[in-house]
Amino acid sequence: MTHRFAHGAMATQFVFLVEHDDARNAGQLCREAFHQIDRLETELSRFDSSTDIASISQLKPRDLMVLTLDAFECLKMAQFVAADTNGAFDVTIGSVFAAWRNPDGTPRTPSLDELAAARERTGWQLLMMDEESHFVGVRKTGVQVDLGAIGKGYALDCAAAIFEEWGITRALLSAESTVLALDPPEGKEGWTVNADAPMLLCQRAASSSGIAVQGQHIFDPRTGQPVRDRTQVWTLAPTAAWADALSTAFFVMSATEIEEYCRQHVEVSSIIIDSQKRYFNLKSNLGEKT
Amino acid sequence: MNIEVPNGMTRRQFITAGAAASAWLAMSKTGLAQAAAAAPPSDQVNVALVGCGDQGRVLVNACLKIPCVKFRAVCDIWPYAQRYGSRYLGKYGHETNVYADYREMLEKEKGLDAIICASPDWMHSPITCAALEAGKHVYCEKLMSNTVEGAKQMVLTQRKTGKLLQIGHQRRSNPRYLHAKNKIIDEAHLLGRITHASGQWHNVKKDDRTCAAKYELDEATLKKFGYDDMHQLLNWRWFKKYGGGPICDLGAHQIDMFTWFLNANPKAVIASGGIDYYKTHEWYDNVITVFEYDTKDGVARSMYDVLTTTGSLGFLEKYMGIEGSMVISEMPRWNQVFREKATAPEWTVWGEKGLVKRVEDTAAANAEEKKAAEVDVRLAASPPPETWEIPVLLDKPPHQPHLENFFEAIRKGAPLNCPAEVGYRSAVAVLKVNEAVVAQKRLEFKPEEYRI
Questions:
Q1: What is the ipTM of this complex?
Q2: Under 8 Å between Cβ of B306 and B250
Q3: What CATH class has A52-138?
Q4: Is B298 at the interface with chain A, CB within 8 A?
Q5: Which of A12, B65, B66, B355 is the most buried (most CB within 10 A)?
Q6: Which residue among A29, A54, A137 sits closest to B32, beta carbon to beta carbon?
Q7: B93–A125: do the CB atoms touch at under 8 Å?
Q8: Using CA atoms in the order B371, B374, B380, B381, what is the torsion angle rounded to 10 degrees?
Q9: 3-state SS of chain B?
């Protein structure tokens, strides 16, 4: 029997589908996972000045700050994807986000000077990390980190670890645009996700980025400009954090760049949906409709 | 038609992707290893954590930011929590021995300087007293004890041993609270005579905690450590034997702040509460209470409520005086100081001195304009208050300054911000609330109740 459990956190709705005989036990597991997600929401938040992530913006060059394990692991994964995509994904984009928003959150267009100032403080190479000590440092003062494009994926991976710990693994974990399939329902090969273009997932994550969901909200860290071309990108990867981050990176990368990335990473693939609702599965063959 | 999902490594094979990221980081030129290795050493304080549940982990994260702290041992009756704590600390280079029994730990760990106690409340007193007797300094979570007798023993043992005992009312070390108390209230008297305080802690409905079946403790072990079953161990805050309920878990923080800011212990209390929502708990899931105080300026009253079925507005405190009022919280977003235009002198000079910071309130400005145009009698009778802010922000984990104060006291003799006597007076005030719920009448505190 498949049970459904939902929980609001990280400005999104987490929905877990669990196939398990004992509904009560499945519910207890989900509540424990949600409890940890609530903790992560606090720990990874940039809004509360007392969190590690918010405090990075106060660091000066030569300052060293110890991060909590989850803040460190999530930031490390973000930096890995940033390096790996030549900065197409970049969590130091907080200053650019801020420049395109009024204090009340409504959109605005920054002046060239404002944007230049924001871009001065943007760039994944401005952050330095050390795994041994869990220190983070900055090359410039005022680097604003925003984990919004990876945090939900990271939280799903943490939830998956709890599912493994409890030995209940036939489950589909989702946080709006990112889903993580664990083991499939009995007798099936995978969990079917995405009604528009169904795909079967097993021990794999998928994440979509696009302007269809939240309105225009993705900026290219390489230019500081909003991205206007595509409507949607689906990214498949072994972990939810990776898929989550890559879906944002792929949204700003060219099809050729994405294809090259997928070629170099056998475990990653991508599906692009253009403005005419055509699907391009970059792993099967670039440009071929499926 | 299904979209073809290509093969490749699955999640299990690639379990967190952290391995790839670690390998990348180790190779990366953006590493900090050199700077980290060159970080100056400091005189170490050897510490053991007793109680590695949610709160213990919060304290560990704060301690890891304090360079002098070196964890040597982790103690918890539950192997799952022990393992979590020692593994977590291991990743930060703290090699720890693990114990189930704090007495065994105190006997075997000879090099310890201090204990951090984050056990269930009923064990605060025995653990703290044993540690003090063994010559260790103690940082003990609030509420000091779930009984007045337990708290009293802690004060007496601290006096006898001369060791340091800090109680975890961490707002007493929070720079924003210190500024509000020392500068805004005491130095500048910006609120005038404070006649009222109010406060709340509202938590959204939460389900009971559980754990995976394979990690449950066996009955004999649970009994040995005083617990009936796993449900009680994981949800101890709700049971009378182990804790004092939400008024002690949450209310204690803010009732302690009332005492500090009003500079007076409560002289009487009335309270109402009950188990109105949850079916599996012994303690009241909501309590509403009123305290009376004799302050140096006259009588003051506070109203306080702790609710566990709604998260409405979270947690905050408010102090109201003749000349102004102030909203403050550990949550950064609650931060306002209002000047009563009708009764208070201008605050410009205090703004210039940096005691308060003016907030440009467009809504209030609009209201002013409207008033001028329409001559609204009610508005004219009660002008909208000016809004200012407390200009101090906490940019550390909330418990870090209080722990820093404790370690400064150990290393350099700094005075503790919440020594045993202060924690004791808070415990006396808070524990009386549960009594008042039962009594269904106004209960008075005798002055000697606060003295030991």
A1: 0.89
A2: yes
A3: mainly alpha
A4: no
A5: B355
A6: A137
A7: no
A8: -130
A9: CCECCCCCCCCCCCCCCHHHHHHHHHHCCCECHHHHHHCCCCCCEEEEEECCCHHHHHHHHHHCCCCCEEEEEEECCCHHHHHHHHHHHHHCCCCCEEECCHHHHHHHCCCCCEEEECCCHHHHHHHHHHHHHCCCEEEECCCCCCCHHHHHHHHHHHHHHCCCEEECCHHHHCHHHHHHHHHHHHHCCCCCCEEEEEEEEECCCCCCCCCCHHHCCCHHHHHHCCCCCHHHHHCHHHCCCCCCCHHHHHHHHHHHHHHHHHCCCEEEEEEEEECCCCCCCCCCCEEEEEEEEEECCEEEEEEEEEECCCCCCCEEEEEEECCEEEEECCCCCCEEEEECCCCCCCCHHHHHCCCCEECCCHHHHHHHHHHHHHCCHHHHHCCCCEEEECCCCCCCCCCHHHHHHHHHHHHHCCCCCCEHHHHHHHHHHHHHHHHHHHHCCCEECCHHHHCC
Q: What residue ranges do the domains of chain B occupy?
A: 41-167
**Pick among B10, B13, B32 to test the A interface (most A CBs inside 10 A):** B32
Class of domain B41-167: alpha beta
Q: What is the H or E stretch that residue A37 is in?
A: helix A23-43
pLDDT top residue among B282 and B368: B282
Strand order from edge to edge, sheet including A65-66: A65-66, A135-138, A127-130
pLDDT in tens, A105-125: 788 899 999 989 999 999 999
Neighbours of B244 (CB within 10 A): 23
Laid out side by side, the sheet with B315-321 consists of B357-358, B386-389, B335-339, B324-328, B315-321, B194-202, B298-307, B286-295, B266-274, B443-444
**pLDDT (tens digit per residue) in A23-35:** 999 999 999 999 9
The angle formed by the CA atoms of residues A79, A157 and A59, to the nearest 5 degrees, is: 35
Q: Which two tokens stand for residue B274?
A: 């009950």
Is residue B380 very low, low, confident or very high in pLDDT (cuts 50, 70, 90)?
A: very low
> Is-cis flag, bond preceding B143, omega within 30?
yes
Task: Test B11 with A83 for CB contact under 8 angstroms.
Answer: no
Write the DSSP symbol of residue A93.
G
Nearest-by-Cβ selection for B210 from A32, A39, A131: A32
Rounded (5°) CA angle B239-B155-B177: 80
Q: Round to whole Å and give the CA distance between A137 and A133.
A: 12
**pLDDT at A287 exceeding the cut of 70:** no
Place of tokens 């500048």: B188
The C-alpha of A146 sits at a distance from chain B's nearest C-alpha, in angstroms, of 17
Q: Which residue of A92, A133, A194, A270 to mutate against B (max B Cβ within 10 Å)?
A: A133
Measured between alpha carbons, how far is B442 from A78 in angstroms, rounded to an integer? Answer: 57
Residue predicted with more confidence, A103 or B425: B425
Among A55, A128, A284, beta carbon nearest to B30: A128
